[in-house]
């Protein structure tokens, strides 16, 4: 059976598609058979990224690790199930990028998840999606609606399949300097993780390079094709490797060794 990694967050601008495509490429580079399914048939960010990657390979006559990919045009849970069954015959890992909204298709994908990844900008604005904090002491007062949605989805999956879901919250756009806000958000997230049941790992930092690579479809695992292997890019590549390793996907142990 394929391992399903679902990237889901109802808020936009959290780096969801960026982390999804970098994860898919990193796993493919590690020798996994990877398929990527884009559920956002309007923006198609993940699809466009991988299309740009395919175009770069044709233009430069190079061979890069490349997942299979497709976009779900028919937005129904039934069509999602058919796409998953088809891709599962060709892939060890299926990466699913959901749109930044709550709908029946996104919920159906979440129920399929073996690893559920919620990228989140490192701020109380984004944290409010899964937990509310006290305005003075910044302690968690209660889980929010999205945490309850995920809890219900995990319960549904456990009843229907007997399998648990590894829920991972990515702290994206982490600042590289310590601040009171960084510490407060971190403490609140750790407290909520214990109450709700998710893991917290560092995601991708606030780096221009992640946006600049999009037109060519490249990732930081393709440094020899970027032409600039400066220290900042090397540090960013290590950041990417650590993020993928932190997800704990079966068979990804070779990712850290990819040049």
Automatic annotation (TrEMBL):
Any coiled-coil regions, as ranges: none
Domain of life: Bacteria
Matches recorded under Pfam families: MipZ
Protein name, per record: ATPase
């Amino acid at each position: 059976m394929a391992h399903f990694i679902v990237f889901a967050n109802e808020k936009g601008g959290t780096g969801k598609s960026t982390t999804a495509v970098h994860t898919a490429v990193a796993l493919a580079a590690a020798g996994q058979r990877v398929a990527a399914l884009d559920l956002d048939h309007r923006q198609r960010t993940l699809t466009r990224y991988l299309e740009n990657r395919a175009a770069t390979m044709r233009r430069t006559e190079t061979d890069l690790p490349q997942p299979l990919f497709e976009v779900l045009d028919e937005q129904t849970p039934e069509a999602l199930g058919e796409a998953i069954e088809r891709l599962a015959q060709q892939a060890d890992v299926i990466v699913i990028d959901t749109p930044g909204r709550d709908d029946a298709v996104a919920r159906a994908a979440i129920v399929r998840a073996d690893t559920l990844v919620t990228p989140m900008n490192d701020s109380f604005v984004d944290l409010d999606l899964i937990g509310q904090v006290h305005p003075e002491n910044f302690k968690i007062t209660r889980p929010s609606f999205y945490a309850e949605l995920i809890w219900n989805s995990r319960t549904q999956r456990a009843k229907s399949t007997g399998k648990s879901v590894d829920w991972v919250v990515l702290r994206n756009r982490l600042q590289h300097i310590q601040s009171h806000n960084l510490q407060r958000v971190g403490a609140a997230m750790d407290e909520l993780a214990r109450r709700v049941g998710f893991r917290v790992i560092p995601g991708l930092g606030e780096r221009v390079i992640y946006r600049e690579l999009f037109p060519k479809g490249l990732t930081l695992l393709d440094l020899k094709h970027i032409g600039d292997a400066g220290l900042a890019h090397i540090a960013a590549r290590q950041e990417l490797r650590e993020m993928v390793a932190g997800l704990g996907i079966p068979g990804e142990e070779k990712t850290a060794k990819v040049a």
